[in-house]
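Need the bound structure for magnesium ion, inputs here:
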Amino acid sequence: MTCYAALTTSKSCTAIAAVEILGAKAGNFAAKIFKPANNKKPDFMQGSFYHGQIFSDEQIIDDVVIACQGNDNIIINCHGNPLIVKNILAILKGLGVKIIAPEKFLQLKSQNIYQPDTIAIESLMMHPLAKSIDGIKIIMNQSSVGLKKWAQAMLYNVEKTDDVKIRHQSLIVLQNSRIADLLINGIKVVLTGPPNSGKSTLLNCIAGQSKSIVSDIEGTTRDWVSVQCIIKSYFTEFIDTAGISPALAAGGKIDSQSQQAAKQMIKNAHMVLLVLDGTSQSRQWFEHESLWQGILNYDKPILTVLNKADIAKKDSGGLWISALNNDGIDLVIEKMFETLKLPDFDVTLPVCFTDRQIELLGRLTKEKSKQTIAGLLNNLLNQELSI
Ligand SMILES: Nc1nc2c(ncn2[C@@H]2O[C@H](COP(=O)(O)OP(=O)(O)OP(=O)(O)O)[C@@H](O)[C@H]2O)c(=O)[nH]1
Ligand SMILES: [Mg+2]
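Answer from helper R.:
Posting the output first, comments after.
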């Protein structure tokens, strides 16, 4: 039976690293390379710890602490210099242990622990990738109170429940999954608007540093510039794009390409921050209805801000800001998250957090046969995952 090993901590230089071995013979391999400090022969049983040294050809490789998470899962906690880690993995490889990527190892390990509880396996695999604390909580909750409980209850009551109700409830889970996705994977916000409205100034203001070039020449931003930050615990990527303008679209190759790229960014975003110049020029831009409609067609939530409050007449209502003076930005950020329904999101709600789950829920929103519904719910709970 194959034994696997991987570095399961960061690849960079760290104080401590963990090399894990998984497989029925994990203890046998550990015994071949480890000498305990107390000279007592270790049994490598679940829950035991040992201090000692890793040896190869009678040479000391490192001083380590070995922890046995299961009888078949041994964790060598060694020093974090990548050269030491490389050495230990090479020694294990030389003994016949198969060295695999950390992601693969995590999947094998979670399958080993949780098989056949597929949602728990996915939860263990996916939560290290979440981009916010709420995202981590959402994923962890799905294997206890969230999706798992929901699917179990649905399956238990499938014969008694109206299929219309099952379809409707599945749709609610999918809708909530879209909000959960923003917390798990982060939010993409595109800054758009006419040239010179202050998009780049606003991006720099949010980033707290000069990332994007600012000038009073129209069409300054050509290639998009992005900053990633955690604001109010939400992982957010702001993308500054070229100002949308018919003159630039009809201009040279680079300008027309940057116009296309800006539109593509809007298409891929979760939300649009429409930055208008609060002085008179912005109204001219609004008159180009085709441009305005173009943005609306992407069906994204839009928050419009009127910039340059410091010099504009402010003769209309709206969300006024001065990107130059960092004035009004906090309110914009707050409104943005409110628009996306992020505050008050209940992290215990049943939601999908993998493509597999989304695909199954999508089918449940359309399915009428009770037998097929039961099959889909069973798959959601206990489907075997391919490695
Ligand atoms: N008074 C004032 N000027 C501003 C403000 N925000 C931006 N500006 C000025 O407006 C001009 C254009 O700013 P940018 O940030 O480059 O505008 P942009 O929308 O990125 O322009 P493009 O990249 O050409 O689409 C610069 O001269 C800025 O200093 C503001 O809040 N108040
Ligand atoms: Mg710009």
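Comments: DSSP finds 15 helices and 13 strands in the chain. The chain has three domains: 4-111, 115-184+347-382, 186-322.
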